[in-house]
């Protein structure tokens, strides 16, 4: 009997946590409506429709919360332990601060303006991110309540759908992408190749396909930063001996000659015409353009639009580089049609073979599929899903068979023959190249991605995914690492809340501390090093925010001058 009571109290503790979060979320939403009412005196029909949708969503949220409040009446707060109380208090404090910020800055969820305030966009994403981290904390302690805690994330995500800025986000994403792609074309197509300054990059880095793509991206970043046309030397490429241009379109239509009057290895001199760039691992001195830095002139717009600007920036470079030749494009489209690729679909990448036990730990298919289940359960809060579908990419053909046998209620789309070509012995064949191109393309087009970020294939798919949404920074679940770029500079976060250790292994942090992040443990805590104290330890993930690094890239103002002269 005592064991049953103990279990009931344990369940009650987490129900109280959910109740508090739901109640405070409603307070936050309600607090915005006085602001809304003051801004709609001269609204048009479109704004009125937005208000109606928001009111309907609020009413649904109230109804959803009634059930939780009934649970709250019968449970004592005394059942909470210190850790749970601290989580509630910190989250309440965050929401109070958010409410004050909304009121003091006249930020409503609906506005007659076409563009949102930057602070609004940052705050909206931070509320989503912090609630997700709190969900990790709850989920790691009690799996039975994951559906109710996940619904809070859904409620916050709905803000982006009812706040009236969806059209702006789409337009801003397109405008930024078009601007960057235009600059890339300008850089890569000089009027006179014979006199143009060039940066030569040899594609044959001794690593796998994803790693080689990231090598090409790094070369492009340095070329863009130094205003040098990138020359990609790819003849004899280990993945395709004929070179890059037989698979993807040339990165320049006017300049592919690597020669010049003066040639030097990196760093050379400003007046050196041709500079040969080494791999990032041996680059010295290191220029400011390396990840995780983004162009300074784009930063204000990009940080307002996107939750992880460096991923967007890398995705834009991949968008330019990975333009398939017509025959490759046809193979991709024909294969997608043959496989029956359609939405909704979750992309799952399971890495095995030579990586497990060296670069990455083993993760069973059950671990991947548990997160797939969570995504579809979350999706069903919005609408009926029908057939649950997974695109499964792996370098082990047995994984496809295992998944189909263990999850017959899922439609598992995967080709074991593609997996076989990823074996070490056949990895550098044309068949293997086509297979990995297909896998990355279909993973990137999925609605959600479950994988291990220790895999470069997974990270490339995530980067390319950013090109299909205004902001896809939250459309993933990594089973191991956080996002990183090989050879990157330090990934730092800034503490926005102080923290005193409550158990062994936690670090002390003060607001404003710079922390070098080592990883997220997906249980509400991350690990890192406090730069101020040099202490290494764990800290609550929601108490920090990313430090956005910028670099003074060229702004390519001459591109517009040339256009004016042509006109």
TrEMBL record:
<comment type="function">
    <text>Catalyzes the addition of fucose in alpha 1-6 linkage to the first GlcNAc residue, next to the peptide chains in N-glycans.</text>
</comment>
<dbReference type="InterPro" id="IPR001452">
    <property type="entry name" value="SH3_domain"/>
</dbReference>
<dbReference type="GO" id="GO:0032580">
    <property type="term" value="C:Golgi cisterna membrane"/>
</dbReference>
<dbReference type="InterPro" id="IPR035653">
    <property type="entry name" value="Fut8_SH3"/>
</dbReference>
<feature type="disulfide bond">
    <location>
        <begin position="451"/>
        <end position="458"/>
    </location>
</feature>
<feature type="region of interest" description="Important for donor substrate binding">
    <location>
        <begin position="351"/>
        <end position="352"/>
    </location>
</feature>
<feature type="transmembrane region" description="Helical">
    <location>
        <begin position="12"/>
        <end position="36"/>
    </location>
</feature>
<protein>
    <recommendedName>
        <fullName>Alpha-(1,6)-fucosyltransferase</fullName>
        <ecNumber>2.4.1.68</ecNumber>
    </recommendedName>
</protein>
<comment type="similarity">
    <text>Belongs to the glycosyltransferase 23 family.</text>
</comment>
<feature type="disulfide bond">
    <location>
        <begin position="201"/>
        <end position="219"/>
    </location>
</feature>
<dbReference type="GO" id="GO:0006487">
    <property type="term" value="P:protein N-linked glycosylation"/>
</dbReference>
<comment type="pathway">
    <text>Protein modification; protein glycosylation.</text>
</comment>
<keyword id="KW-0472">Membrane</keyword>
<dbReference type="Pfam" id="PF19745">
    <property type="entry name" value="FUT8_N_cat"/>
</dbReference>
<feature type="domain" description="SH3">
    <location>
        <begin position="488"/>
        <end position="549"/>
    </location>
</feature>
<keyword id="KW-0728">SH3 domain</keyword>
<dbReference type="GO" id="GO:0008424">
    <property type="term" value="F:glycoprotein 6-alpha-L-fucosyltransferase activity"/>
</dbReference>
<dbReference type="InterPro" id="IPR036028">
    <property type="entry name" value="SH3-like_dom_sf"/>
</dbReference>
<keyword id="KW-0735">Signal-anchor</keyword>
<feature type="disulfide bond">
    <location>
        <begin position="193"/>
        <end position="255"/>
    </location>
</feature>
<keyword id="KW-1015">Disulfide bond</keyword>
<feature type="disulfide bond">
    <location>
        <begin position="207"/>
        <end position="211"/>
    </location>
</feature>
<feature type="short sequence motif" description="SH3-binding">
    <location>
        <begin position="285"/>
        <end position="291"/>
    </location>
</feature>
<keyword id="KW-0175">Coiled coil</keyword>
<dbReference type="InterPro" id="IPR027350">
    <property type="entry name" value="GT23_dom"/>
</dbReference>
<keyword id="KW-1133">Transmembrane helix</keyword>
<keyword id="KW-0333">Golgi apparatus</keyword>
<feature type="domain" description="GT23">
    <location>
        <begin position="195"/>
        <end position="479"/>
    </location>
</feature>
<dbReference type="InterPro" id="IPR015827">
    <property type="entry name" value="Fut8"/>
</dbReference>
<keyword id="KW-0808">Transferase</keyword>
<dbReference type="InterPro" id="IPR045573">
    <property type="entry name" value="Fut8_N_cat"/>
</dbReference>
<keyword id="KW-0812">Transmembrane</keyword>
<feature type="coiled-coil region">
    <location>
        <begin position="51"/>
        <end position="101"/>
    </location>
</feature>
<dbReference type="Pfam" id="PF14604">
    <property type="entry name" value="SH3_9"/>
</dbReference>
<keyword id="KW-0328">Glycosyltransferase</keyword>
